[in-house]
Write a structure and sequence with these properties.
Elements lengths: L1 H27 L10 H11 L6 E5 L6 E3 L4 E5 H5 L3 H18 L3 H30 L4 H40 L6 H36 L7
Parallel strand pairs: 1-3
Antiparallel strand pairs: 2-3
Helix pairs in contact: 1-7, 2-4, 4-6, 4-7, 5-6, 6-7
Length: about 230
């Protein structure tokens, strides 16, 4: 019963956060900002003003697949945000520029997250496959399985915790630079950028809460001396 409550509540939280960011993005992905800039143009100017000349700005056709790749120093925007002239497009583009600026300035949480990517990838594989292996083979003792799952979810939880300051700081930088440069106008445009970025932040909060919940659930038998989680 405890597991199903955890599963349903965290799933509902994640779905709500994803639906909310999509709804708000679509609301502000309309019209044209007063500066007339596209997301790609705004990104180029922001990086230039920051003295960053070695980051490639490109685009792809994945919807909301915008990201900054610190390994290859590549800022990737969806086509809607690269070519778009909406508050949503400029907000997302500026947010990704925030990550590039973090990288250039050696922002500590970003480097912690980069360092944790490898072990987090393994942890994600553990939480995906270990329950199936235990269920269908029976070769893993419940206590051993719970320990491995607790450790794996703990790694994922810490990764998601580190991600929070990285994402919130990038959004803070984006709101500030867009306002200071006049790329977006005060009022409705600035409000649109704020709402889009704030909604996106909730997806990271939801991921952290989910991983924290599963970590504590798997850790519970050890905290209660092996008593049932039911």
């Amino acid at each position: 019963m405890t597991f199903w409550i955890l599963f349903i509540s965290t799933m509902a939280l994640s779905l709500w956060a994803a639906a909310r960011v999509k709804s708000i993005y679509n609301r502000y992905n309309q019209g044209t900002v007063s500066s007339g800039l596209t997301g790609g143009e705004a990104a180029g100017r922001i990086l230039q003003m920051a003295g960053i000349n070695d980051v490639e700005i490109t685009h792809h056709d994945e919807i909301l697949g915008d990201h900054y790749d610190p390994t290859h120093k590549r800022l990737v925007l969806s086509e809607a945000n690269y070519f778009g002239r909406t508050p949503a497009a400029l907000g997302v583009a500026a947010h990704e520029c925030g990550h590039a600026i973090q990288h250039a300035q050696s922002y500590a949480p970003l480097h912690w997250r980069m360092a944790a990517v490898g072990v987090t990838t393994y942890a994600n594989q553990v939480v995906m496959w270990l329950p199936l292996i235990g269920m269908f083979t029976g070769i893993i003792q419940p206590v051993t399985g719970a320990l491995f799952m607790a450790v794996a979810w703990g790694v994922i939880m810490l990764f998601n915790l580190i991600t929070l300051p990285v994402e919130f700081d990038a959004s803070r930088r984006a709101k500030y630079v867009l306002a200071e440069t006049g790329f977006i106008a005060p009022g409705e445009e600035a409000d649109g950028v704020k709402k889009v970025l704030d909604a996106a932040a909730w997806t990271y909060v939801a991921a952290f809460i989910t991983s924290l919940g599963y970590f504590l659930w798997h850790l519970l038998p050890f905290l209660t001396g092996g008593r049932s989680r039911e």
